[in-house]
Amino acid sequence: MLEGFALILSAPSGTGKTTICKLLREKLPNLRFAISHTTRLIRDGEKDNVDYIFISTKEFEDKIKSQDFLEWAQVHNSYYGTSFQSIDEPKKNGHDALLELDVQGVESLRKMKYPGIYILILPPSIAELEARLRKRGTNSEESILQRIETGKAEIKKYKMYDYAITNHVVEDTVSSILTILHAEKVKASRYS
Ligand code: 5GP
Q: How many CA atoms lie within 13 A of 105 on its CB side?
């Protein structure tokens, strides 16, 4: 059995990441979402152990000390981290794993030459990103401005990724990701 793939996806906050991930999971039954740990507050509509494993700062820092994380980062004043367990389990069982990481997470994985397909989702424009963040209505003004600044910094790091897709229409974006995955799967170098 071939080991599963790691599909590493970054999308600045407000780019449509949640919808993209939801559609990908519907269309790819073999895909397993690597559930990250975070210390940020749970949002309306989110579920613990489904969207994230929500833990306290103390618990997170203990996990850092016990080296439970493949990578971790501070994003918008909260901790986020991918545990070894969340990704090793699915891959070992031949499933593909979807990791949703910010650029710092991608930087860490690239440094350790972690094998995977690295995809960046871009907003059509910064104005559109701002409009989407405002429409979502779940963030304060300060946090919206912070997310825009983080988004701009993230977009500048596009060269770290294998692919960059502008999310004009979410269905088209998902279909591009499926095409990329398919092409990667049939690469001759994958066969031994
Ligand atoms: P949100 O709070 O909007 O769900 O996510 C905020 C940011 O944290 C997003 O850029 C998201 O990709 C990133 N993120 C989510 N999980 C992880 C993780 O495990 N590690 C890292 N480095 N970033 C993450």
A: 27
Q: Closest ligand 1 atom to the C-alpha of 17?
A: 12
The residues near 175 (Cβ < 8 Å, ≥ 6 apart) are none
Q: What is the pLDDT of residue 2?
A: 66
102 Cβ closer than 6 Å to some ligand 1 atom = yes
Query: How do beta strands 6-10 and 117-122 pair?
Result: parallel
Cα–Cα dist 31/22, whole Å: 11
Reduce the DSSP state of residue 83 to 3 states and report it: strand
Phi, psi of 48 (to 5 degrees): -65, 140
- Give residue 79 CA to ligand 1 midpoint distance, Å: 9
The values of phi and psi at residue 186, to 5°, are: -95, 10
**pTM of structure:** 0.90
pLDDT in tens, 12-25: 888 888 899 989 98
Q: What is the mean pLDDT of residues 41-53?
A: 92
Q: Which residue among 101, 120, 148 is best mutated to probe the pocket of ligand 1, counting the most ligand atoms within 8 A of its Cβ?
A: 101
